[in-house]
What does this fold into?
Amino acid sequence: MKIAVIGANGQLGSDVVRAFEETGDDVRGLVHSDIEISDIDSVRQALRAANPDLVVNTSAMHHVERCEERPENAFLVNGVGARNLAQATQELNAVLIHVSTDYVFDGSKRKPYVEDDAPLPLNVYGNTKLAGEYFVRSLNPKHYVLRTSAIYGKNPCRAKGGLNFVELMLRLAHERGKVRVVNSEVVTPTPTVDLAKQIVALSRHDCYGLCHATAEGSCSWYEFAKEIFELTSTQVQLEVAEANEFPAKVPRPTYSVLENQALKSASVNVFRNWREGLRDYLAAKPTRMATLA
It folds into this structure.
């Protein structure tokens, strides 16, 4: 199968490229210098040259504060960009897998969201990603829209200064010896390698539509940090931060847990519990773990 991965040098995109290469697919990774998704002519030119059977879009403007400051730019990338990809893949009769976010919900439900729940974004990022979902779903029938949550991977996350939550916690523990983390926000930490495996699994099926795609289970950010420190035997004083101790510049959902109902109904869910994914992520870095322990 010929695969084009957009955002191939990103935290998720790099793992998606690797996962498809491991299955023997013909993979072409596209980065910003190869394709400008907010420009329909650039999208058509790049995808016609690649002539893929499947396009995976991992690119986005996902720095939440920056989206709030530049809503027009955010909509161009997250909304219009998704529309352009949907149009171009429909013209090529290619499948589009488009990665979206748990931030399309406001977090007020307090139990896992399913695909049928009504979205209600709290910020520009969530609204523009929701617009992108609707464009994809309306323009290319052969689509998967995957909402995910709290992803982390070994490739640097450029929008967050190069550090994912796991790496940030370990660095703070090493530098300060004490870390305070909120216990009032609940997520599902999802390794990018696991999401990439789910994307590969979906590429072998035609159960198109909207799917929630996260690791199993959930935890607060405090519980996530606690597990990180326990698995790495890191000596640190971990404390619960007050809910308003680190005031966010932009409203965010305090509950972002998704239930993979559509994947399970189609018998294609390959996700494992978030603790297993974290254990494997940390085990792949034995030298660093020994240094920080």
